[in-house]
Amino acid sequence: PEFPGCVFTFVRSDKSKSYFSRTQVKFRRRRECKTDYYARRRLIQQDKNKYSTPKYRLVVRITNRDVIAQIVYARISGDFVLESAYGHELANFGLKVGHSNYAACYATGLLLARRVLTKLGMDQDYQGVTAADGAEYHVEADGERSPFRAYLDIGLARATTGANIFGVLKGAVDGGLDIPHKCKRFPGYNAEEKSYDADAHRARIFGSHVSSWMDELEEKDQALYQRQFSAYVAAGITSEDIEGMYERVHAAIRANPQRTTVAKEGKPNSFNQKKLNLKQRKERVATKKAVMTNRLMASM
To answer: Per-residue b/e over 36-46, b at no fewer than 16 CB within 10 Å?
Structure first.
């Protein structure tokens, strides 16, 4: 058949049979898009002259409703967690709502830093920034013990300017940890002018972006405000209370960063049946036989 106006070209296949027969399957967590092994390899490699000293990582992961911050070090058998802090734990320090915004990320990083230093007995030597001001801060050695150093691990998240991940970083640094970083990804940094506005960053740390959006939405659409900030309304929190709420959270974290365990009332749930001895099993069988016999006699 003729095909007027059509030009057929020969296309050579770049991937032949020999290519597919020699393809090496990637690691499982790489196939699942969970681990960036290019970055992980550089984060866990330690100098040979440090004699198996752990290389700590500040692992930050953010979900829709929670913030996960952990101090992790790698061994051949796997990763081990030295200390951790979570966004939902902030409820124990006075933050009842908003556990995944930038201000909550900062508080989570601060909580993790104070817990690690308290665990290692360095909380008095390295206080960090007692009053958050958003200014650039780097921990300096003070005393016989060097500051606790960790390296930021953000996984597969994008390193965009103002991302919530860097709120955890700023909170951990202000809490007294030594984490190598620059201000280029913090809120308030202007890439064109190459300048950093610490006041703009402080405003994000204390949730001014949340309070301004509450005021704007309350004026525009009351119904939408009641739906979007229903948890704030139920807790009796207004836009004027936001900054003071975070100041009290920071103070509570520095006063006592340890976990609070709540004793549960009643007996613990047990989903396994209690093991019976021989006598109890025979009585159980005899009871079942008697019940079945009564049912058969009643049906006749």
So the answer is: beeebeebbee
